[in-house]
Amino acid sequence: MTPTPTPAYSVRVRVRMVNRPGTLGRLAVAIGDVGANIVGLEGFVVTGSHLTDEIVVYCGSETHQQQVRAAIDALPDVEVLEWHDRTHVMHRGGKIEVVPSSPLNDQDDLAMAYTPGVARVCMEIARDTDVSYEYTIRKNTVAIVSDGTAVLGLGDIGPEAAMPVMEGKAMLFKHFGGVDAFPICVDTKDPDEIVAIVTALAPTFGGINLEDIAAPGAFDIEDRLVAALDIPVFHDDQHGTAIVTVAALHNALRLVDKKHEDLKVVVAGVGAAGVAVSKMLMAAGVRNIVGVDRRGAVHTGREDLNASKQWFAGNTNPDRLAGTITDVIAGADAFIGLAGPDLLTVDDVKSMATDPIVFAMANPNPEIRPELIADIAAVIATGRSDFPNQINNVLAFPGMFRGAFDARARKITESMKSAAAVAIAEVVGDAVRPDYIVPSVFDPRVAPAVAAAAAHAAREDGVCRP
């Protein structure tokens, strides 16, 4: 099966064609015949017997891109002049930059922005470091910290390879939450070193967003930083995922008329995200959660569990089910995938309870392709932007930090996370339907709603600076 065409594998093609009726049509047919989708025509330039045109084509993979190229090259009246992978072009030179927020036009500006005037501000902060939140970037700046050990669905690819993701995260912080953010990719996997580095960097930032750090080290790092620092620390892979998943499940349950306390939920992936999602689901009332990792269902009878999975085993899987996903998913009301591609089969979904809910959130490729179960599952969600119901952390983290900063919160509390989940679900409101259980990431209501809810919860919890 040809992968679904997506902007992630789109190409921009400049072609030169013989100016003859039917040539453009043959080009379109050739591209369509190999399963790609033309989504843009940039306009024709006619030069006598030939014309040139730029087209944008969505493909499904790099192999698919090559198939499209071969199909175009096979046309006798069409010549490819330029061929660009749009995703790679976007990333050239990086995706963010630092720009000044104050003018620097003359000697007056220079004398205030730098020496000698800056010394007055420095001494003010030296007398009271809390003033740094008023006179520096701290009040609105987050460090995005990663060691590159658990990047998307790609695994341990290293800090350099993690940088494009962290740059993208910084873009999302700014666009959706008005929060300035900067990537800090560290060349160490040692939790002690990561904690030491972040602690040393903390005076520069108003908050810390931990990103793509593998479990179980991620739990230890976050716990220690929360204890050591008086600024918000948030491991987005855990808590951002959990917040949006809980919001999505809340609305999905409205559609199938089921209650949290009556559910059987199978969670594929018991890493940082899987554990955090399960904890929030339990707090929401779910009593029967079965987690599955690479070696099967997690239960108290297993002797190969790390500390976080031991906790998980002791608080989930009340029937001590064992075996693979196929062995434990029968009768489940919901599947939450946080693991990897193609782990779930059509027969697995058919074995679930009536009106099954399937959240296949692995990126870039889900646990099961949504089109395979469209006529079986009552509600389907993924982590991808090219399918309905994208469970995307961007619905949570920009608003969460916006609210924390607005409230001058010293930490992110459980109440703030729960309030954020409710706020996201309520944006959908009465418009909920099977293909709309979470709002679009571009819905302008989301970040302000999450920020207001998180700020209110922070004030109620008494964790804010005066």
Automatic annotation (TrEMBL):
GO MF annotation, one: malic enzyme activity
Pathway connected to this protein: Amino-acid biosynthesis
Alphabetized UniProt keyword annotations: Oxidoreductase
UniProt cross-references to InterPro entries, sorted A to Z: ACT-like_dom_sf (IPR045865), ACT_dom (IPR002912), Aminoacid_DH-like_N_sf (IPR046346), Malate_Decarboxylase (IPR051674), Malic_N_dom (IPR012301), Malic_N_dom_sf (IPR037062), Malic_NAD-bd (IPR012302), NAD(P)-bd_dom_sf (IPR036291)
UniProt keyword Oxidoreductase present: yes
Signal peptide annotation: none
Gene3D superfamilies (alphabetical): Malic enzyme, N-terminal domain, NAD(P)-binding Rossmann-like Domain
A Pfam family matched in the record: ACT
Domain annotation ACT: ranges: 12-86
Protein name (record): Putative malic enzyme
Organism of derivation: Kineosphaera limosa NBRC 100340
